[in-house]
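Appendix B. Raw example, untouched.
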Amino acid sequence: MKAVLPAAGFGTRFLPVSKAVPKELLPLGSKPVIQYVVEEAVAAGCDEILVILSRGKEIIRKYFEPSPDLESVLERGGRTRELEGLRAVSSLACFHFVYQPEMKGLGDAVLQAREFCGDSPFAVLLADTVIHGPSPLADMWASWSANRTSCVALEPCPAERVSRYGIAGGRETGPGHFHIESMVEKPAAGKVPVMRGSDGRDLPPHAFAARYVFTPAIFAALEKAVPTLNGEIQLTDAMAAVLEREGFRGVRMAGRRLDIGNPRGLLEAFPLFVEG
């Protein structure tokens, strides 16, 4: 199975350090953030991984590629533990890399994966977001296998924060599983899609939670998506088009999503991922 990790962008919330070090490579304990995301994808059965980069982020590619010179130094020095750890990173999966020519939003970043994915379903994991606890990916792949429709991870969202996220509406079909009927990117007050439980009662708003499984239909929808005023292609707009064409499912995340794209999120993650 294939996974796509968008890791382009300038990381402006971490300036000035992100001018030289991509936010995805900031350390969270003994590993950089993006390695946790890769390991999550691999644990869910993804053995081919495409990382979408922007110019200036070549160091991410270097991190996952073998380093023969360094390996030779470690081997000659008898530093077996360090050598095994180094080789383990490059052997996690079969890695591929592609560049997003212009910063035109998450939708445009995913569109760069079209050739890599071909006619196969694929997972998308935002490379600056880690999950503490169970990943939703296994349930999402199971949902795809059962329904042959795209699937998005969801999490309950406080009403005062819905304007920050993509929000899904629909109905619960089983514990933590949803048939999605509508989705809106950063809805204004009064425009928030309603999610209902299996008993028909209204649930709290449910936001997209940085993990997706898409059918190839997402690419045609992205190509037709109308850019916003700032020139970005919204992934949610393309998802809504796929919803109309072939349906969409949702899985509520059991773990905790931590956005490492901002300093506060990184600080919150440290006590959860760093031992001692």
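End of appendix B.
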